[in-house]
């Protein structure tokens, strides 16, 4: 492969984005035409720099963007390989940061986090490694905090309805059925409500 003198500087990438400067923007936030004219490698590089300037992205996300811009496959692969080599694309770091951010920011559990990472093209082994960093104890603690925040809004409702709403909320965030039922039941029982007779009224979590 021909060595190109105009590759991005391989200095470390900060949490805010790549070290290289993104192309200028014009109009309503749209990226101005990438430099390089008809050179597909230069065009691909400009597109990737612009996208990475906004937020970290996976290799698959960038590859999809290049495909939509009709960048030839060989040119796209050359750019993506080089960006990986200099650390501007790192799916493992992306996945680790995603798990940290989405768990603490949105309260998502491992199952939901894994699903999101897979849709972004992160390899299964990388997904497994990233979500495994989230300890079961941390997941349960977050589930309890979510229920505690939502609980006051359900007061005055019949017990079965409270259970369905709270368990459903945890289910949408990826919590296992057993954990969701246990956390909700304990929270309601601390308020003096009996839940045992109503557990059959709670739909199964897929």
From TrEMBL:
Where does the record place the RecX third three-helical domain? 138-183
Q: Outline the extent of the RecX second three-helical domain.
A: 90-130
Q: According to its UniProt record, where is this protein mainly located?
A: cytoplasm
Q: Which sequence ranges are marked TM in the entry?
A: none
Q: What family is it from?
A: Belongs to the RecX family.
What is the protein's known function? Modulates RecA activity.
The entry's protein name is Regulatory protein RecX
């Amino acid at each position: 492969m021909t060595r190109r003198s105009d590759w991005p500087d391989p200095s470390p990438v900060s949490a805010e984005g790549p070290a290289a400067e993104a192309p200028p923007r014009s109009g309503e936030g749209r990226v101005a035409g990438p430099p390089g004219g008809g050179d597909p490698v230069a065009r691909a590089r400009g597109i990737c720099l612009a996208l990475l300037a906004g937020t970290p992205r996976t290799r698959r996300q960038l590859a999809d963007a290049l495909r939509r811009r009709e960048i030839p496959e060989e040119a796209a692969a050359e750019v993506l390989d080089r960006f990986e080599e200099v650390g501007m694309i790192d799916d493992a770091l992306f996945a680790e940061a995603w798990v940290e951010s989405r768990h603490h920011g949105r309260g998502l559990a491992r199952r939901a986090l894994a699903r999101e990472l897979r849709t972004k093209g992160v390899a299964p082994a990388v997904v497994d490694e990233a979500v495994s960093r989230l300890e079961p104890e941390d997941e349960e603690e977050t589930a309890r905090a979510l229920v505690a925040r939502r609980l006051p809004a359900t007061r005055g409702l019949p017990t079965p309805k409270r259970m369905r709403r709270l368990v459903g909320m945890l289910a949408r965030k990826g919590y296992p059925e057993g954990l969701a039922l246990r956390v909700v039941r304990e929270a309601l029982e601390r308020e003096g409500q009996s839940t045992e007779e109503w557990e059959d009224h709670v739909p199964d979590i897929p």
